Amino acid sequence: MLSAGIRSALPLAACLAPQARLGLGPATVVRYLIGMSVSPTPRPWIIAEATWAEIRETEYELAILPWGACEAHNYHLPYATDNYQVEALAAESAARAWAGGARVAVLPAVPFGVNTGQLDIPFCINMNPSTQMAVLRDVVEALDGVGVRKLAVLNGHGGNDFKQLLRELQAEFPDTLLVTLSWFQALKGDGYFDIPGDHADERETSLMMHVAPHLVRPLEQAGDGATRAWNVTAIREGWAWAQRAWTRATVDTGSGDPVRASADKGRRYFNDLCARLAGLWSELSALPMNQWYEGEGESLPPPQP
Is the pLDDT of residue 299 over 70? Predict the structure, then answer.
């Protein structure tokens, strides 16, 4: 028996041609629609779905900016994999925080990331760090101007690194708390997945099987995610770094074999990761602006004679 929410979304699900091609039933696709990018009812924590009447009556405490990329993901995952994942994680974790009383606002995701190592791959759309800085500055300035002085950048792409950008912006906006995190570092894959990797691998494929199953091609079509190791010892051991030239360092644009991926693994990892993210959103929302640090605001003990 389908719930009222699922029944209300069935017309939309029926319009999705990929479901028939992949043999997915309407209920499977609708579970994706309800929990992730599309909802049969508006969600007040998703700014793209909220109205001015709703927003002006809500005192939002924290803005969340999902940031992804547009790039090749082996032969079986779509180019927007990073966006589907980070948007789904932002939406679900924010829903849990909202249910606990936190007033969080998920902003529309930025769909392009730093892809300077994939410029020779069609439609890998690169957004340089300098462009990201310009976008972030405008977002922070807009939020700061209306009194939303906590922003978390939720990163979903390995080529993005916002720490240095936020260092500069924190000096410009000292009264706004700027936080960044990457979901793939917030919860490691140990205990969830069998084969390590970092791009279109077992973890990413399992997540996509859970959040957007209609976009995942059969694993028989996937490459094995083989990579070519660096000839530089320090880089290979991880204590020095250089950008990978993607088509030289990989065979099929993947990094890590997805062969053991499953929707069940993705569901379990997704749920645990959302719980961790929701805890962070709740903690940030409740954080007093004058008490970012332990003991801040407390009077210091008198000096000893």
Answer: no
